[in-house]
Queue: 2 jobs
Job 1
Amino acid sequence: MEDQPADSGDLTTGSEDDEAQAQPTGKAGRASASGPESVPETDAAPADSGDAEPAEEPVLVPHRPAGKALKIVAAVAALLFVAAGAFAGATAQQYLSDRALVHTKLDVARTATSAITTLWTYTPDDMESLPDRAQKYLGGDFAAQYRQYIDAIVAPNKQAQVSNSTQVLGAAIESIGPDRATALVYTNSVATSPVTKNIPSLRYLSYRLTLERRDSKWLITEMTPVTSLDLTPRL
C-alpha cells in the first residue's frame, strides 16, 4: 500500500482537532476566552453636587398678633414689677428715715449728757470760768440765767472750797422733732468741802431738758429739776 501525502492546506493534525473539540465551552471557558474580568473600584467618585438633593427651604409662618390672654399676662407682670419697685423704694425710705431718727436721738442724748456733766462739775479754782465752758451747750434765755446763777454762788463756794462732781447715770429721749426735743437726764452728784470735814454730800438728781436745734447743733433752752434725793450723812 503506497503512502499518500498529507493535504497541504491542513496544517493541524487530527489529534489536535480532537483536543480542541473536547474542551468545554461553559462559563469557565467563556470567561477565559473573554479575558480577565474587570474589578470594580472600591472608592467611588463623589457624586456631582448638582445631583445632590437640595436643602429644605425654611417654612415661613405668618405673624400672628398676641392674643388677649398673653396681653393680660404681660400687663399683670408689668404691674407686679412696678408694685415691687414701689414697695422696695418705700421700704428703703422707711429704713433710711428710721436710721436718721436714731442718729438724731443719739445726738440729743450725747449733747444732754455732756452738758449736764459740764454744768455741774467744778472746783474752787475753775468755777469762775464755768459759764464760759458751758456756753457752747446753752441757748436762749437759759444761757443768761445760768450765768447769773453761777456768778451768784462763785464767791461763797470759793470761800468754802466746794468741789462738785456730777456723773450722768442715764439719759432718755422723751420727745423729738425736726428742731425741738425733750430729754430726761439722771445724775449722781457728789460735793465736798473742808467746812463739812470733806464728808461727801450725795444727791441723786434728775432733770428735764428742752433742746432746740440751731445751726445743726442742739442747745439747751430750758432745764427743770424733776426729782432730788439727798443722801448726805447727818452727823
Job 2
Amino acid sequence: MNSPPDWEWEQLLDIDDSDLRLSATTQNRVSSTFPRVDNYDKIPGPAGIVQIEKKCKIADIRDGVDDGDSNFKSGPWVRAVEYVKADGGIVIGCFADIKKFIKKGKLDKAVAIIKSCTPNVLGDLNVTLKDVSGLISGTIHHKVVDDPRFEKQFTVGAVLILKNVSVFSPKQSVHYLNITIKNVFEVFSKDIVALSSDVGCSGSGIDV
C-alpha cells in the first residue's frame, strides 16, 4: 500500500513548521547524546522527524533538573530558598507543567534563576527562567529594569521571587511570563554569597 504524501502526514498530525522550534518551556542544550525518548511507533517521512522532535521536547522537560545545574547550589539560589523558608513557605517547580498552576491567567508564585536575558527594542528584557522543574521564557517590563531598586540586578545567574505573574499562552503547550513591577517580590543578585551550604536542590521541589 502506498504511503500518503508528506504533506498529508503533516495534516494528519496537525503540525506546522513552527512546531519544529522548541517551545517556551524548553531550551537547546549542547550534548554529545540525544535525550532519552520512550518507545513509540515511528512515522515515515518528514512527519517522522517532527514526531522525534516532539518526543525530545518532552524528554528535555523531564530532564530539567537532571543536568547537574550548579545554579541550584549558587549563593543567590540558596539565599532565595532561605528567604522563602523564613517566611514559612515552600519552593516547588511549576514551569514544566505550568498549566496545573495557572489560575485565572496568572501564576501565584515562582522562584527562578535567570538563564539568559536579552534587551529588546522596547527596553524590556527577554528572559529564559529556570525553576527546579524546567524552563520558561518571559519578558521583564522596562519599568522594572529601570527601577533604581533593581539596578543592574537582572543578569544571568540572578534569582527572582515572583508573585501573581500574568501568563500569556498563544498555544496550549506554549506559555510566556509577563513580568511587571508588581510581580517582582525579591531579586537576589548573582554575586550574593550563601550564608549556609545545606540548602540546595536535588529534585522537583524543596520542602523549606
